Amino acid sequence: MRADRPDIVLLCGTFAGHRDAQARLAAAGYEVAIDPAGSAAASPGPPEVMRFVVCDGDSFELERLQAIIGSAVVSGARVLVVGTSTDSERIITCFRSGASDYLTDAGPGADQIIQRLEAIRAGSGGPGAALANAVQRLVGKLHHDVKNPIGNILGYVDILREDGESPPSEEQSTLLLRIEQNCERALDLLIRFADAANRLR
Question: Which residues of 143-170 are buried (b: 16+ CB within 10 A; e: fewer)?
Fold first, then answer.
């Protein structure tokens, strides 16, 4: 930590009570300030101080999260949102509000927080690269959590069509066709989303 420009990490949300994160950040050379109220407006230090706000993306309503990020960015701080949520609206809202990055799948892991803060401080990436990384992580989750179950559903549709004691009725055939079409539409959307995400790289 340089004496002429110290780094201050203001912990908001559930991180305000996370002592392990506080201790590790302090050991890594950051000055740690706690804001248990979750408001980033009281960010400490003079204007030339490089400030970070680590905000729990899961502990606030969306509007409150926007307000915290917005007030921090206006005060000159950079915001790292950490959460387990993969809700695309929440992630995109954070970036639109000015967050430097959204770290998922980490929970409140201090080592991962410090690693990301160091990357932000070093100037690697930026909001554009961070958004692309977040989208790539989201695509990976969609493929695992959505695409695989759709494949299972289509397999069951084939079983119901072909392996019954008697062929399905007209009403059942119509329903199976509708299920199949909806699954194919969902798969097509996933492929389009993945293509769009690849263009962000």
Answer: eeeeeeeeeeeeeebeeeeeeeeeeeee
| Confidence (pLDDT) at 162 | 82
**pLDDT for 142-158, tens place per residue?**
766 787 788 889 888 88
* pLDDT for 7: 73
pLDDT value at residue 50: 65
Pairing relationship of beta strands 50-56 and 101-103 according to DSSP bridges:
unpaired
Query: Which position has the token pair 């502990």?
Result: 59
Which residue carries 């998922």 as its tokens?
A: 104
How far is residue 83 from each of residues 30, 43, 88, 157, measured CA to CA in Å?
21, 21, 12, 37
Q: Which long-range contacts (CB under 8 A, 24 or more apart) does 178-182 make?
A: 179/153, 180/154
Instruction: Look up residue 162 and give its two tokens.
Output: 């072909």
Task: Please enumerate in sequence order all residues whose Cβ is within 8 A of that of 37, keeping only pairs 6 or more positions apart, or say none.
Answer: none
Q: Which residues, at least 6 apart from 127, have a Cβ–Cβ distance to it below 8 Å?
A: 95, 98, 99, 100, 101
CB atoms within 10 A of CB 36: 12
pLDDT higher than threshold 70 for residue 5: no
Helix (H) or strand (E) holding 23: helix 19-27
